[in-house]
Write a structure and sequence with these properties.
globular; three-stranded antiparallel sheet; single chain; 1 helix
């Protein structure tokens, strides 16, 4: 499945290979973590876990819970 550029600052592709495989790349120079811009990242997730994450997100949206700002979290490569 190819996702369009409707997601701000990311190009992504997803496919099933036993697990859900998500390949993505941040393309905007103003990305909060500039060293990530232009690098290709890959994440794998068991389909059941992906479904649970999506259901959890839908439940939060339905409840009107704020999601928070993902850029507030430390970068995975940082030592903090």
């Amino acid at each position: 499945m190819q996702w369009g550029e409707t997601l701000d600052n990311v190009s992504a592709y997803a496919y099933l290979d036993g697990d859900l495989v998500i390949v993505f790349q941040f393309w905007r120079v103003s990305h909060p973590f500039p060293t990530d811009s232009g690098q290709v990242h890959v994440a794998t997730l068991p389909p059941d876990e992906f479904a649970a994450v999506v259901k959890g997100a839908a439940d939060l949206l339905e409840a009107g819970e704020p999601a928070g700002d993902p850029t507030d979290a430390p970068h995975p490569d940082s030592n903090s």
